[in-house]
Amino acid sequence: MTDYYSPTVIQPLIPVAAMTPLERLLLENIFGAEPVGDDLYFYAEEGPVDFIVLSRAEIAEALAASNGIAGTAATYIAERLSRVAPEDAEIDFDLSRASTWERIFQEIVRRSPTLRYVTAITSFECSKMRADGFGGMAVLITADRIISKSTHDLIAEFLTETGLDAHHTHLPRSRGIVSLGRLSFVSDMDEGGGAPRRLADD
């Protein structure tokens, strides 16, 4: 069995005061979170979590403490709650096809008087030395844009610069997606994609 990983670090540190309690609840379940003074350092040792389970009680508490601030977190939670039975005490959230955490960081940047941007640096790693298992991705999140570029994007650019792109057949591509053998990672954030994450196994 081959295991694929995408360890990720978020910079700079995110002020706790810049997040709503609901945003913090989601981000702390998607990433690991380490307190640093009045800030949080977000990271993922194996990759951002794309399936989380929250209790209805903690969701209700975070919603109430968020003072009705609208945004990705509130909208996503509300839509999910509308599709589950009122008696369900625990609620699962599938984030594998969404750009939830990227948009949450963007909204934090928009509201913050001190944060100008957030970056996500991801390394693509593999438990075996497979050609499709290694690389990386850099994502820049500003108030207005979410931009990303992978190492495979860079290779494609190098091939174009050297006039070899016509012979570029070892990394099949489609718009917005870098296809890496068994895995696909979103690469073009401006086209509505998400940050690098496993989309599908063959």
SS field, number of helical segments: 5
Distance linking N and C termini: 13 Å
Contiguous low-pLDDT stretches (5 residues minimum) are 172-202
Question: What percentage of residues falls in helices of 4 or more residues?
Answer: 25-40%
Reported for the largest beta sheet, the result is: 8 strands, antiparallel
The percentage of residues in β strands lies in 25-35%
Global mean pLDDT: 83
Q: From the helix content, strand content and strand pairing, which structural class follows? A: alpha+beta
Shape from CA axes? globular
Q: What is the β-strand count?
A: 13
How do the strands and helices of this protein lay out in sequence?
Blueprint: E1 4-5, E2 8-11, E3 14-15, H1 21-30, E4 32-36, E5 39-44, E6 51-55, H2 56-65, H3 72-81, E7 90-94, H4 100-111, E8 117-126, E9 135-142, E10 146-150, H5 151-161, E11 173-174, E12 177-180, E13 183-186
Antiparallel strand pairs: 1-8, 2-5, 2-8, 3-5, 4-5, 6-7, 8-9, 9-10, 11-12, 12-13
Helix pairs in contact: 1-2
